[in-house]
Protein: Redox-sensing transcriptional repressor Rex
Organism: Lapidilactobacillus mulanensis
Amino acid sequence: MTPQNKKIPRMSLERLPIYYRTLCNLADDGYQRIKSAQLGKIIQIEPTTIRRDFSYFGDLGKSGYGYDIGHLIEIFGMILEVNETQGLALIGVGNLGRALLINNFRRNPNLEIITAYDADPAIIGETINDVIIQPLADLQADLSTKQIKGVISTVPSHALQLVVDYLVECGITSILSFAPEPVNVPESVHVRYLDLTTEVQNLLLLAELG
Amino acid sequence: MTPQNKKIPRMSLERLPIYYRTLCNLADDGYQRIKSAQLGKIIQIEPTTIRRDFSYFGDLGKSGYGYDIGHLIEIFGMILEVNETQGLALIGVGNLGRALLINNFRRNPNLEIITAYDADPAIIGETINDVIIQPLADLQADLSTKQIKGVISTVPSHALQLVVDYLVECGITSILSFAPEPVNVPESVHVRYLDLTTEVQNLLLLAELG
DNA sequence: TCATTTTTGTTAATCAAATCACATTTACAG
DNA sequence: CTGTAAATGTGATTTGATTAACAAAAATGA
Ligand SMILES: NC(=O)c1ccc[n+]([C@@H]2O[C@H](COP(=O)([O-])OP(=O)(O)OC[C@H]3O[C@@H](n4cnc5c(N)ncnc54)[C@H](O)[C@@H]3O)[C@@H](O)[C@H]2O)c1
Ligand SMILES: NC(=O)c1ccc[n+]([C@@H]2O[C@H](COP(=O)([O-])OP(=O)(O)OC[C@H]3O[C@@H](n4cnc5c(N)ncnc54)[C@H](O)[C@@H]3O)[C@@H](O)[C@H]2O)c1
């Protein structure tokens, strides 16, 4: 079953980065093959779920043998496009944005923040990790010279809709926001939220009840 | 239907913090009532999903009228225990941990990082936002004087299992980790991951395919 | 080579969540 | 007070994901 033929379930796609990372770690440790049962132990996913997930990307395994780690990495890497670096823009270089920029996905060679923007004149012009902080209005122009695949926003809630409107206008279609304010965007634009407060509240709540 | 009687679906609980925050914002803006349809517009959730979620917590609405915002806030606030501050410990005060500590949930009066720990002697003793950075070994003792409801870990992947083992030993049961390394813990301990890299990869992937 | 064991890939069964559809309740206008 | 419009709460249905069960395929060892 090839990817093109059938729609791959959302959840299977969501797990792909986890599979990919884990397999890379295994390869680094010198392993060459893995069975769904072993992998399941490591990442706490049922082996049968893993096998079904893998099956969406082709007949990747061999009965009585398992999966070739190198082969899986190659296939999944292709889907995740790890060979070409995915350029990202960061909007809002406050405390959180700064931490992201300093780290800049150093463990993930295929993700890279290549431009950064802020509204505060006091920090515009500053360079962090080889990236110059620019006024947001420069983004439009930067797009003509740099391949920006997505945006990470760490601006405060009250500024988010404004910023996102501008991003949409510039043609950005993938946005990850650390502020949980729900924003209005056209159908074609994907917005994800990484809502720390909700995560913590859920953690405590589920410990209490669930 | 009262909360005690029936098990509340996981997803309904997960949405509770979002409902709560949104309702508080509406109250701040002077609104006193809301219909499931309006609320659904704001937070992009189907009205029927909202009504069913709410129904798990009692008969909160009135036909032909909607919901009283103050009443919802009171009920949900009670479930989320917003009246007593939930004390948190932060492990790992690097770039990311520092950003969290400086912000310290200032928009959420019921969450508060009350202690912080790190392994680096160079920063132990430093005070950020009235919290002193201590060696991790001090946590055990701190637990006898302070109510710590959960832990946020921003230590690197390679240190995570070690740190978590210690936390479990101390009796901590709720952990949020920014490092995606899967850890082994007893059944009774809840670990959540907030995996930035996976979030970004999924964002780009779903924009590409889904 | 052949029997045994292992492990996959997938059909069928289960489970959980979202949505539909509508009877019931309440607000409100006249 | 009464009739109409509006909105809830919930059985029934649909959708989607996970898990169980197992036949088919490949490896291994005698
Ligand atoms: N840091 C945390 O612990 C934490 C916790 C929960 C949620 N958040 C969310 O993440 C956001 C960022 O957190 P932070 O601690 O980095 O805040 P911060 O105030 O340190 O940084 C915000 C940055 O955004 C910039 N900014 C404001 N408006 C802008 C605009 N229109 N265009 C470009 N840049 C703009 C500011 O100049 C500032 O540098 C918070 O507002 C919050 O919504 C953070
Ligand atoms: N910052 C990012 O953009 C980013 C992105 C993806 C994932 N992460 C994850 O978050 C983690 C933290 O990120 P960061 O940028 O703050 O890294 P960092 O290196 O700045 O901070 C890590 C901190 O943990 C402390 N530490 C190490 N071992 C410890 C131990 N055993 N006990 C107590 N403290 C210990 C270190 O002293 C340091 O202060 C990363 O390792 C990574 O797994 C971060």
Observations:
- Residues 9-12, 46, 48-49, 52, 62-65 of chain B lie near DNA strand C (CB under 10 Å from a C1').
- Chain B has two domains: 10-80, 86-198.
- Chain B touches chain A through 56 residues (CB under 8 Å).
